[in-house]
Specification:
The complex is a heterotrimer of chains A (616), B (295) and C (307).
Chain A: E1 4-15, E2 18-30, E3 35-39, H1 46-54, E4 61-69, E5 72-73, H2 79-85, E6 90-93, H3 97-100, H4 107-118, H5 123-136, H6 142-145, H7 155-167, E7 173-177, H8 185-201, E8 205-210, H9 213-219, E9 222-227, E10 230-236, H10 237-242, H11 247-255, E11 292-304, E12 312-325, E13 330-334, H12 341-348, E14 356-361, E15 364-365, H13 371-377, E16 381-384, H14 398-409, H15 415-428, H16 445-457, E17 463-467, H17 475-492, E18 495-499, H18 503-509, E19 512-517, E20 520-526, H19 527-532, H20 537-545, H21 551-556, H22 587-591, E21 597-599, E22 602-604, H23 609-614
Parallel strand pairs in A: 3-8, 3-9, 6-7, 7-8, 13-18, 13-19, 16-17, 17-18
Antiparallel strand pairs in A: 1-2, 1-4, 4-5, 9-10, 11-12, 11-14, 14-15, 19-20, 20-22, 21-22
Chain B: H1 3-9, H2 18-28, H3 30-48, H4 86-122, H5 124-138, H6 142-153, H7 157-184, H8 187-195, H9 199-235, H10 247-256, H11 263-290
Chain C: H1 2-29, H2 43-52, H3 59-71, H4 86-121, H5 126-140, H6 143-157, H7 171-201, H8 204-211, H9 216-254, H10 259-268, H11 272-300
The chains are: A alpha/beta (616), B mainly alpha (295), C mainly alpha (307).
Amino acid sequence: MSLLDVSNLNVRFDTPDGEVHAVKDLSFRLERGETLGIVGESGSGKSQSVLSLMGLLADNGRADGVAQFDGHNLITLPEAQLRRMRGRRISMIFQDPMTSLNPYLTLADQMIQVVREHETVSKKAARSRCLEMLEAVSIPEADDRLDRYPHELSGGMRQRVMIAASLLLNPEILIADEPTTALDVTVQAQILELMRDLSERFETSTILITHDLAVVAGTCERVLVMQGGELKEQGEVRKIFYEPQHAYTQALLKAVPRLDEERVERLLDGGEVGGAAAGARAGNAAGADPLLAVEDLKVSFRVHTGGFWGHTRELKAVDGVDLELAPGETLGIVGESGCGKSTLARAILKLVPLAGGQVCLLGRGLSELDSAEMRKMRSDLQIIFQDPLASLNPRMTVGDIVSEPLWTHRPDLDKAAVRQRVVHVLKRVGLEGRELNRYPHEFSGGQCQRIGIARALVLEPKLIICDEPVSALDVSIQAQIVNLLMDLQAELGLSLIFIAHDLAVVRHISHRVLVMYLGTAVEIASREDLYERPSHPYTRALISSVPIPDPDKERSRARELLFGDLPSPMDPPSGCRFRTRCRHAEPRCAEEIPELRAVGPSRVACHRAEELLETV
Amino acid sequence: MSAATSQAVGEDIPGRSLWNDAWRVLRRNRAAVASAILISVMAVLVIVGPLFSSYAYDFTDWSNLSIGPSFETGHIFGTDTLGRDLFVRTLYGGRVSLMVGIVATIVSLVIGISYGATAGYLGGRLDHIMMRIVDILYALPFMFLVILLMVFFGRHIVLIFVAIGAINWLDMARIVRGQTLSLKNKEFVEAAEAQGVTAFAILRRHIVPNLLGVVAVYVTLTIPQVILVESFLSFLGLGVQEPMTSWGALVKDGSEELESAPWMLTFPALFLAATLFCFNFLGDGMRDALDPKDR
Amino acid sequence: MLRYSLRRFLGAIPTLLILIALAFFMIRLAPGGPFDAERALLPEIEANLRAAYHLDEPLPMQFVRYLGNLARADFGPSFQYRDYTVTELIMTGFPVSLRLGGSAMVVALLFGISAGSLAALRQNTRTDYTVMSLSMTGISIPNFVMAPLLILLFAVYLGWLPAGGLGEGSWRNMVLPVISLALPQIAYVARLTRGSMIEVLRSPFIRTAKAQGLPMYKILIRHALKPALLPVVSYLGPATAAVITGSVVIEQIFGVPGLGRFFVQGALNRDYTLVMGVVVFYGVLIIVFNFLVDLAYAWLDPKVKYG
């Protein structure tokens, strides 16, 4: 008999706009000791279905159906009985470790009460149980950490604590709802490894919910694929990946660019296959005069450390970065959150003041320009943001939003001419061109991002900086936007700076890639060199942390995992900033700051780059 | 033109602004709509009402000293101890109270917005200093200072406006500053900066329109506060000068004749409480409609 | 913690100085003087009086002298009550006011927090609507309107409770003044608690606690109450100020011999030292209380650093 047997599960929500049927007739089983993956995009109902099993739906939600667990139907079980199951026999961890722990209680306070709620044990015994569990999830100095507050721990550490708390009573089922989505890829790899370890050690059956197929590939035995509240396909993990039956699964697999295969020219995005521009990409335009040259760029912020008269300290967000960009070229910038990549983008645009260095566009230093000249220059230099909705003024119509750059830079155009251009550019980014009077909140995330791109394009700039333009979007929408950007580049000869934390997307779109760590560039190389012969230990760790949507490869890979989290940029380590997490660090790394220097075709900032290359 | 034909022609699709949305939500809120109507009725009544009364606000009806409400005498709210018609006096009191409410709110609005927007938009060290000043002022027991002001400098109506406005701008400045600060860091403002839009145009097109919702809510909630402060001062005998009156002054007179002439308290108190109630309800409704947090 | 307290304390000093200076100069610059009310005094007698009270010195000198005396907790002699010093007057009035205000605050917090939490737990039910309508009424009826209405009902018509005075310090005399003073604050605290409690109950860590199988009442007490009460704690400062100001009229309406009476009479009689004394005393009280509230907040919220 299965441990958990769900049949005909329906979840409905009453909303002011009528009833929403979030989960439709879902049936699945969870066997003892197995790890089951549930994959789907936002709105697929994947989270709501497990929340309904736990009786944790929002107040306006109702569930019906059967979920057999140990002779009980969880859906109809009275709250009092269900409550005694929660945490003890079925436990759950959530997406955002920053907000899922109570910020007002110490870890001991919130963990001990879970033990004592379900078992009659002394405070002391409960505490030592918590300690054991924190050690099991590899938290160093657990005894000291136990009396700390969540905000004193890093994100990765907090997710470990969440896992420890959920396993305290050795539950039969652990439900993990997007447990790594809010984490950096290097930390994600650590957490996934830990979860695999623990589920074996404690013989817990796990349901892993995620939007990321690659996460499922290495972790789960069986997979469910959901879309729009319906189960599209379920089966063994290898079957799902190697012989997907349902068109949606196939589309999902092809929508994500992957690191383990030859780069494809075009992602499948549900639109017209094989766009006109495919293959017409501008090559690596070496030798041409650079469009953009950045030298020794530095940005620092004054950070208030709190306090009455305001003590401030200097945070060096970007500390000496050089880069060049040719016309028609795409430069990818990758790194973990807090590495300074977005600040670098803003510094190039002069949205934040420079603490040092120089930005030259078309051979002219931007810092030498007066404000009128700078304003003129801005028409060549545009930006697209991560959060599509937040980047559009909610009180302006789409027409006004896209017209605004023209009002600023082309006062010579009359109303009709502005309108004509706006309609044209809206059509160009795949909208109808009739949306002029509508407001941003009436559009989906993907459409908002198209509007943002239209605004950037309307002045026909030479360079667009894309700051994580697809991270907030579902994978199929992500593919559409990436394809659109590449088409536009081919058609208009744009240069792009593409900032992302997703290494696979960056490989897909970029000609060259810059890797940043704590405000410095650690490696710059062409796409091929970087991904095939990564030289810096950090680049190698990053690439090996990215999960691959291929169960066999993912499970047989030799990994070079990083330990720990990103150090605080307020006090970067001396010498090589990466040394505290580097497995190849030597005494010299703590003393000398490595220069960015040529190593083969790449430029690498590592003392041991040559030696390490030989070990590949 | 029907939707179908307009689509066939390829005309623009009509949009639905946040103001439209807010208006729709507000209209569904029956309490808020009723409050808005009642406030309008009240405003019309205090402005127009006295014109139709046969008594002046300071006329002493010697034959009807301190009588209860009656239609025969024409004193529908009764008279006070000096034989003055309470209906007319209540409306006149309403004029003063509402006027103080609106004018003093405008005073605090002007000071608060300019101060808060400056601090928020310019930011940095200036912001820090400006907000420290607000913090210090915040901790002062202002009501006492206002009372001192009224006692020692005479009870001029302009002084009331200034004094009350001077208290209330602090809240407004804090709110506007907080909003401006968060708007300034919004990506759409960055986008405008990246396009080279001038600072003035950014303020006009991006900052101010997004502030208006909060300001509208706040104004609605400030008016009753100000009316309350004015009636508090009047109650202490520090408001407008006799024979002119305000709701607070009428309540004071009424509370002194509580046992002999309860109507002297009841009518002005009712008017005052109803007005405060309506403004608070309307403000709450507007907050629900305009606050993006709930959407 | 010690450093933090010290710094907050130092921060309160400029506020206090500004308050004293504002009150001092406002009173002195106003037309009229403390001896206007009496029969026309012979010029030399008035001059002697002025000299005795140092009123003939230049203003800045007087200010410095006043500050010096304040530092020794000496508010000076009262102009009006010739036989008493201001300190003595404050000490007779303050215990009464403290009893009234303190009870009102306790009542306000007790009822406000429970009503607000109840409304939040039963959000969008009849209970919620009732609590919210009542508290809206509480906010909209000023205490100086509520007080006479309560007297009318409970003292005049029903005759259950005395209409005013202190009695022999009986609790029955305190009931109506305390209720009048507390009602608007109950309403404010209830609305504040409801709002923050609803927000806290929506936060992910509450969902975590539910997923761990804690019963609702424990979640409420252990997880939700502390963060939900933080806004109420920061409201304690303004609430104290409101209760103190409110007690000025409430004391008048109920004939309670507290500090408020001295303030109003002192102001009307231009009793400089008495009015100054009361303002400074209350100012210090409010500022000290704000300081304590800040400390309490920092203690409750682990994210506030003492650094």
